Amino acid sequence: MPIITCIEDLRRIYERRVPRMFYDYCESGSWTEQTFRENSSDFDLIRLRQRVAVNMEGRSSASQMVGQDVAMPVALAPVGSTGMQHADGEIKAARAAEKFGVPYTLSSMSICSIEDVAAATSRPFWFQLYVMRDEDFIARLIQRAKDAQCSALVLTLDLQILGQRHKDLKNGLSVPPKLTPGTIVNLATKWRWGFEMLQTQRRQFGNIVGHAKDVTSINDLSLWAHNQFDPRLDWEKVRKIREQWDGPLILKGILDAEDAKMAADIGADAIVVSNHGGRQLDGALSSIRALPSILEAVGDRVEVHIDGGIRKGQDVLKALAMGAKGTYVGRAYIYGLGAMGEKGVTTALELLHRELDMTMALCGRRNVANLDREILLVPKGFDGEWE
Ligand SMILES: Cc1cc2nc3c(=O)[nH]c(=O)nc-3n(C[C@H](O)[C@H](O)[C@H](O)COP(=O)(O)O)c2cc1C
């Protein structure tokens, strides 16, 4: 077994073990991938203040996100088709999150269904919703999330239309993969992935097939999904969903101070400052750069979370010290899942936790719940002086 010291080690193993089509689906952004790259590289521009001779015993990374206790403020972000990265991937990731004590967010576009994940776990998870044109389907999906005791609804607002990711088009991405000569050659080298996939029945979108009108097969599904993302989504529709969900509502995909204020006005419990991991509007600001102006705009009116580009515990610490109350990782745990299943997700969480804890200590702090900008060296004009 290789010695794994960082998330990048997991990414390398993941790249070897998972079919190219699904690796590329994860490891890409839209168009030129500028925003995808800057999500991570902008974290590196922020430096840390080393402090000494401060008692570092008795540290804690425990905190709360939307009023729920978390072992560290790092949730697993919703990632569509996770069950294609590893057989029963959503169940494996949810179990790892549950054991670690952090929230798991199940995507609407998951392979394992809400009911599958609920049956395989013993603590509530969060459910992510995309707004689709079929309002009955949405109402039933929300009801299914309630029946499964999901403890927060994460409503994603930045995918009314799908950003173009060049590699997906070139690879002919499909779920399950279409067997072209190219994919057959590639799949032949991923025997471990294929062997595990053959052991499960879960190989299509579990929340949709058999639940949405006229979708009973994989062929109906691609047409349905293509036509369903609702380009007419507006704040009125968000308000209606707020009315349908009594529990914590988290609005995901906010990158602008004005939108953050709207989210607070609507009564969201939290927002996620996010550009969908650089997969939607290429050329948008990285999440960490967008964070300060959003915090300034909403203050304490709504809890502010962030995702995008987090690959290290140090990134988590920087986001928290900038003022975010919670963070999410997407690719960082998918690398672990693709590399080693549930154990890999646990390893990713352990790595992030260790890096977060040690960095906090070396900055002279003992508690993640009360970090502040004092520990950061932020370059002048970091959030940018844009016109
Ligand atoms: C392969 C992949 C699939 C994703 N699918 C969804 C999804 O179904 N719903 C959603 O709200 N966000 C989705 N996202 C965005 C993530 O929730 C999250 O915003 C992003 O991954 C954060 O960036 P990071 O991967 O750099 O941590 C997806 C991201 C990736 C990489």
Polypeptide structure, described:
The protein is of the alpha/beta class. Helices cover 45% and strands 11% of the residues. It is built from 16 helices and twelve strands. The strands form three sheets. It has an eight-stranded parallel sheet. α7 (135-147) links the parallel β6 (126-130) and β7 (152-156). The longest helix is centred in the C-terminal third of the chain and has 32 residues, at 331-362. It is globular. The termini are far apart. The model has no long low-confidence stretch (mean pLDDT 95). The site of flavin mononucleotide has 24 residues, from α2 and α16.
**Number of helical elements:** 16
Which ligands occur here?
Answer: flavin mononucleotide
Residue fraction in strands: 5-15%
Which class do the helix and strand fractions yield? alpha/beta
Element pattern in H and E: HHHEEEEHHEHEHEHHHHHEHEHEHEHE
The number of strands is 12
Radius of gyration using CA atoms only: 20 Å
Mean pLDDT: 95
Spatial arrangement of strands, main beta sheet = 4-11-10-9-8-7-6-5
The percent range for helix content is 40-55%
Low-confidence stretches: none
Largest sheet: 8 strands, parallel
Task: Kindly report how far apart the N and C termini lie.
Answer: 52 Å
Overall shape: it is globular
